[in-house]
Amino acid sequence: MVPMRPFRFLTLLLAATACVGAASSPAYFAYIGTYTGHGSQGIYVYRFEPITGEVTSIGLAAQTENPSFLAASPHGTNLYAVNENTVGSVSAFRINRRTGGLTPLNRVSSRGASPCALAVNHAGTFVLVANYGSGSVALLPIEADGSLAQRSFFAQHTGSGTDRSRQQGPHAHSASFSPDDRFALSADLGVDLIYVYRLGAARGPLSMAGSIGVLPGSGPRHLAFDPDGKFVYAINELSATVTAFAWNDGVLRDIGTVPALPQDYQGPKSGAEIEVHPNGRFLYASNRGEANDIAIFNIDALTGRLTPAGHTASGGRTPRSFRIDPTGQYLFVANQDSNNVVVFRIDPLNGRLTPTGRTIEVTAPVAVQFVAAE
Fold first, then answer.
1. 21 phi/psi in degrees, rounded to 5
2. Is 252 domain-assigned?
3. Lesser CB count within 10 Å: N end or C end of the chain?
4. Does residue 301 fall inside a structural domain?
5. Average pLDDT for residues 18-45, to the nearest whole number?
6. What mean pLDDT do residues 83-93 have?
7. pLDDT given at position 30
8. Per-residue pLDDT tens for 156-208?
9. Is residue 229, in this structure, part of any structural domain at all?
10. CATH of the domain at 140
11. Which domain holds residue 169?
12. Are 121 and 129 in contact (CB under 8 A)?
């Protein structure tokens, strides 16, 4: 008998693990945040069955203005949404885990204009919101009932970048927490910086821990940690590139930048979303402009460096955002300008994407958030 190569054994093991996971997967609610005013009324909810890939519409979950980014509490009890308006705010909802319905709790100021991203820390005690229009971030404490208190911390970014049309001033475009909840991060598209804040105790005062720049004119947009918390990846909107960083106790170290577009692409560049697969082996990034695709990368587990592994058409126009489902089997792409969310299956062995044939028709989708159903 010929001995099996270690890599081949690992490949078969991963495939078997994926099958077992699929057989025991619970149902999820997929919440879709939208831009309102052209036929959409707010946040829509769908029931998703990972075993079959079936997606069923439940309807409008909450009527609210421009919920362009969503984040759920760690235990799936509450959902938070930015209201991307000139006078920005953040809305809090209680989730009915049986029906998928949302009950409004309250709405508070984001302390800035056009909030475009938010995150809940892993302890479920704070929401960090990034205000694109005014280039600032605010920390909002979460009350015991899931509602939001007024901000406990506010930071105004300053400066400008080399792109005179897009970087006249700061534009905070992301909000995230480190895996240990000791730090908060925000990428600022307008000043080509990623800010790192240290999270304090009690009501969560933040202090500046440092910042790191990307190549001038890149415009960092969103960030993603790898599952082990060793690396951070930034999708740069203006240059359509991905920059990898090593992460060590609040310090970022640049380890390289790679293009997110095919080598022969000549059209406008507009990187949008980024996410690392739960297995830590693959990274995905979306390209808007004329590309309308999802870039796939392999991640070196030791160094964190990225190797391009192909592109898949997004199935629509302007893939503003996407989300990998909690089982790691599917990727939902929100195509803003073609009014659809396209569902792809992820190959667990090589990370490639294959359309499932299932498409959600919804006006101006811009965000996807999964919550386990009861």
1. -60, -40
2. no
3. N
4. no
5. 82
6. 98
7. 98
8. 999 999 999 999 999 999 999 999 999 999 999 999 999 999 998 765 678 99
9. no
10. 2.130.10.10
11. 64-213
12. no
In a domain, 233, yes or no: no
Contacts of 195 (CB under 8 A, 6+ apart): 137, 155, 157, 185, 186, 187, 188, 208, 211
Residues 370 and 24: their CA atoms lie apart, in Å, by 17
pLDDT digits (tens, 9 = 90+) for 202-219: 656 789 999 999 999 999
Asked if pLDDT for residue 299 goes beyond 70, the answer is yes
Token pair of 9 as six digits: 């054994």
At 127-152, the pLDDT tens digits run 999 999 999 999 999 999 999 998 88
- Single pTM value for the model: 0.93
